[in-house]
């Protein structure tokens, strides 16, 4: 395995320069990644087998250097398979750590729902109820400064539910003063800023930084022994380095501060434990999937509390994709059958594997792969926040 490449993001100027460099090198792979959902490309010859049978060929075909897939059947962990599609890379193991990117969001939402169940947070309450001293917005989510105390009165209209289902009206990311794209509650608009806003409320309620609260309140109870919202020495030891679309190393953004929207480091085994816990708790599934906001009416796609919701003829799917520089991730499950998968990759080609793998676990065509919503997260932050658009 290649040595871990790190670049600590400590200053705003370093942050901006890093993202400029990342944007230029990510261009071709990002465009290819966005297209992969609509057209995943020709399948390898082994494309009709199980995940175990087709994963090596898929990884090699799409040049995904490392991929781990945890398969869940009937609400139980069924198998974990891994593969390497690059000659110089060794296949990862079940406890290999990846950046999970936006797979951070459903896990954070799970924590919020537990706080709501305990009566410590109300889903219909304004987030500002839990921030009596105001909301200090960070211009860059991984850095404490520069920051501003937000005075826009519309902040008071954002409820906990709105933050979780992406109807806060806030942009995905902003590298300057916080602004609103739409009125709170008006429509679905994917927002990492909304999750960070809610994160500050959770930290205020629990009296702990997010990483410590998640470690003691969530990871311990679920048995997630190899997960963290920051990159500490223990996690760094097992972190698989990210790669570009051509297989070359990608400098890793070192997550020194917890960010509810994208800083989770985890393993396929750990995240599958979380997925199993969600699927096994029908009351929680009902809360997550009840009355989703509309994302794409033609495709019958919506968003619930922390999860994408795909309504199918006789089923409901919950799902989320992840997109950080050097990493791609995907999780999907059927709430009817309790079948699903967790896919973690260290490649900017990784999402090309999502649809063919999903078909092996949940047979048939799935409308969510025709959706245009998968191309956001950190790369949208580059475009919307720093105006460095592809």
UniProtKB/TrEMBL annotation:
The lineage of its organism: Bacteria, Pseudomonadati, Pseudomonadota, Betaproteobacteria, Burkholderiales. Keywords: Hydrolase. Gene3D superfamilies: DD-peptidase/beta-lactamase superfamily. The keyword Hydrolase applies. Transmembrane segments: none annotated. InterPro entries: Beta-lactam-related (IPR001466), Beta-lactam/transpept-like (IPR012338), Diverse_Enzym_Activities (IPR050789). GO terms for molecular function: hydrolase activity. It comes from the Bacteria. This is Class A beta-lactamase-related serine hydrolase. Signal peptide: none annotated. Residues 57-361 form the Beta-lactamase-related domain. It comes from Pseudoduganella lutea.
């Amino acid at each position: 395995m290649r040595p871990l490449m790190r670049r600590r993001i400590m200053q705003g100027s370093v942050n901006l320069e890093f993202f400029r460099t990342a944007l230029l090198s990510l261009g071709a792979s990002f465009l290819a990644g966005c297209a992969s959902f609509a057209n995943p490309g020709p399948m390898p010859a082994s494309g009709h087998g199980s995940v175990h049978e087709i994963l090596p060929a898929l990884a090699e075909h799409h040049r995904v250097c490392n991929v781990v897939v945890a398969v869940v059947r009937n609400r139980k962990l069924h198998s974990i398979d891994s593969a390497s599609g690059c000659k110089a890379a060794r296949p990862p193991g079940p406890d290999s750590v990846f950046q999970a990117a936006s797979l951070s969001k459903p896990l954070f939402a799970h924590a919020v729902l537990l706080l709501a169940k305990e009566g410590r947070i109300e889903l219909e309450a304004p987030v500002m109820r839990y921030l009596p001293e105001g909301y200090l917005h960070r211009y860059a989510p991984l850095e404490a400064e520069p920051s501003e105390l937000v005075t826009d009165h519309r902040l008071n209209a954002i409820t906990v539910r709105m933050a979780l289902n992406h109807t806060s009206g806030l942009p995905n990311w902003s590298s300057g003063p916080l602004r609103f794209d739409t009125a709170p509650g008006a429509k679905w608009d994917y927002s990492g800023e909304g999750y960070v806003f809610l994160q500050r409320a959770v930290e205020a309620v629990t009296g702990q930084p997010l990483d410590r609260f998640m470690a003691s309140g969530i990871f311990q109870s679920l048995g997630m022994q190899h997960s963290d919202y920051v990159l500490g020495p223990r996690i760094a030891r097992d972190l698989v380095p990210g790669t570009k679309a051509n297989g070359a190393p990608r400098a890793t953004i070192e997550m020194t501060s917890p960010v509810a929207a994208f800083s989770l480091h985890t393993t396929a085994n750990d995240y599958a434990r979380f997925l199993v816990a969600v699927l096994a708790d029908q009351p929680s599934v009902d809360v997550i999937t009840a009355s989703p906001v509309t994302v794409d009416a033609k495709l019958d796609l919506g968003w619930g509390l922390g999860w994408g919701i795909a309504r199918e003829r006789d089923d409901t799917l919950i799902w989320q994709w992840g997109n950080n520089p050097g990493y791609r991730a995907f999780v999907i499950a059927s709430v009817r059958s309790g079948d699903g998968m967790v896919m973690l990759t260290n490649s900017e080609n990784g999402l090309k594997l999502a649809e063919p793998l999903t078909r092996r676990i949940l047979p048939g065509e799935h409308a969510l792969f025709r959706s245009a919503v998968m191309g956001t997260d950190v790369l949208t932050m580059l475009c919307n926040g720093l105006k460095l658009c592809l």
